[in-house]
Amino acid sequence: MEQVFSTPSVEISVGKRLYTGYKILRASPQTQQQRTALLLLQEGVDFWSDIGADNKPVDIMVDPGHVDRVKQYLSLNGIDFEVMIEDLQKEIEVENDTQDIFDDDDLQRFLPPQKRDKRQNLQQRKQTYSLFDLLPFVKPQTRPRRKPQPSDQVPFEPSRRAPRVIRHPAKQSFSSHPVSSTISAPSPTSPTSSFPSTTSPGASPCAQTGMNWIQYQSFATISAWLNCMATKFSDKMSLIHIGKSTEGRDLKVVKIGNKDSNKPSVFIDGGIHAREWVSPASVAYLIHRMVETEGEYDSLLDKFNVYLLPMVNPDGYEYSRNHDRMWRKTRSKTGGKNLFGQECHGVDPNRNFGYHWGGYGASDDPCKETYRGSHAFSEPETLAMKNFLLSEKANFQLYLTFHSYGQYILYPWGYDKLDTRDWRDLKRVGDVTGRALNKLNGVNYQIGSAAKMLYPASGGSDDWAKGGAGIKFSYTVELPDTGKHGFILPARHIKAVGFQATTVIKAMLTEVGSYLPK
Ligand code: 0X9
Ligand code: ZN
């Protein structure tokens, strides 16, 4: 592709890379020849998804200077394509807005039916629904299990509202994209409305950290929130420091459950890839629900200990917030330089785990998005996970890692199109989870082995969890959407996607439990 691509013109404003006029094209190759043509294109253009088998569409990010030539190239090769995102920068700028929340009909689904108002004018709506209606820090109002303790600086207080019982969230999805972009909202009966201020009765005791579910949060906020939660809910959760990132950020695992280490356990992580913001947000939401929802998780927590690492790659995440929204990798120094002499930082953490490390789909070029690292577990973040999973005295039965986007439930192997010996068990649990998501959230996930369903990619955490750590049930869940927004999922969807994550964990733990000795 040398003849097509020239020096990259990178627009930067106040230390941030801009994506003005960048387009996301979805190409649908139909033949091997067309896939080969895309492979050549991959040399010079950023792909959001890898080239898979069969006729899987591929999402390509193209800068404005090359849009016409890339379109021509696709047409010349007879490859069908559509424009998924017209101007990436525009999407980035509104992604974390809470302003448009009132303009958005989707939001109506976050509200209880009596509060929905389909055709009121905006001004009226603004008056009708305060922002506090959307604040997440509501204690779902069932009876408290224990009396307030003196150590609770902000004690639980019974709601002035009638108890809300979460039963069967209505089947709802909203889709405005032809390729079934489906994100379901939580039930209208789920606790979405809130008290008018963080100091009000019923507000989360950790709301003052700034944590909420209507915006993507900084690592510092998430970290402060975790510290606060561990203090306020010390009877339910604790923090385990498992190491530090390259830039010195703490990697904190939340442990929920009791001291019985013989119990079967699950490890859940998020934020392996920096730009997949909805992943750490959803794992944080899971922690919130597991800890702050009285009763909802009691029976599962009786059987399982749950370990959660909301952000595996905090350096990359912060880099994606402050400098380059599309950053995927870690931020370690690799020693690599590109054609223009610029240093190439970072390793793809999901190519850095030590099971079939360095095989298909993992690059040895430090300047590539899928750089595997100099050796397996070269990154402090992946090494910390490995050491923890191998040394913690826990009986891990399930490994679950949240990524985005695409709406997939993937199981090993990812390194090659091969089946595990127990693939039927993995598929069964995946299928049950997919059905639960569909029933409860009205959303469709595709289920299959990673290499066959997407593309072969070696060094993934899911493969290592199974092949290296011996955890039978291992899954990568690619959260929403299916491409309308891609990685730039507006923050107003966090709660709905987080709710899907709760459905995943409940279904998986219930099913995995049925494989365990009684
Ligand atoms: O390519 C990846 O690492 C994952 N997709 S993403 O778009 N989030 O980057 C999929 C990983 C699936 N698992 C393995 N290939 N082992
Ligand atoms: Zn990912």
What is the H-and-E element order? EEEHEEHEHHHEEEHHEHEEHEEHEHHEH
Tally of DSSP β-strands: 16
Helix content: 25-40%
Q: Could you tell me the radius of gyration in angstroms?
A: 23 Å
Strand order of the largest sheet: 7-8-10-9-13-16-14-15
Rounded to the nearest angstrom, the distance between the terminal CA atoms is 59 Å
Description:
The protein has helices at 32-42, 67-76, 88-94, 122-128, 219-232, 278-292, 298-303, 314-322, 380-391, 423-441, 450-453, 461-467, 494-513, and strands spanning 11-13, 16-18, 23-28, 46-47, 58-62, 80-85, 237-244, 250-256, 264-270, 305-309, 333-337, 343-345, 395-404, 408-411, 446-449, 473-479. It is α/β, with parallel strands linked by helices. Helix 6 packs across helix 13 (494-513) and helix 10 (423-441) crosses helix 13. The longest helix is centred in the last third of the chain and has 20 residues, at 494-513. 47% of the residues are buried. The model is unreliable at 1-7, 102-182 and 185-201 (pLDDT under 50). Zinc ion binds next to loops. Zinc ion (ZN) is lined by residues 272-273, 276, 350, 403.
Chain-wise SSE layout:
Elements lengths: L10 E3 L2 E3 L4 E6 L3 H11 L3 E2 L10 E5 L4 H10 L3 E6 L2 H7 L27 H7 L90 H14 L4 E8 L5 E7 L7 E7 L7 H15 L5 H6 L1 E5 L4 H9 L10 E5 L5 E3 L34 H12 L3 E10 L3 E4 L11 H19 L4 E4 H4 L7 H7 L5 E7 L14 H20 L5
Parallel strand pairs: 9-10, 9-13, 13-16, 14-15
Antiparallel strand pairs: 1-2, 3-5, 3-6, 4-5, 7-8, 8-10, 11-12, 14-16
The structure holds N~2~-sulfamoyl-L-arginine and zinc ion.
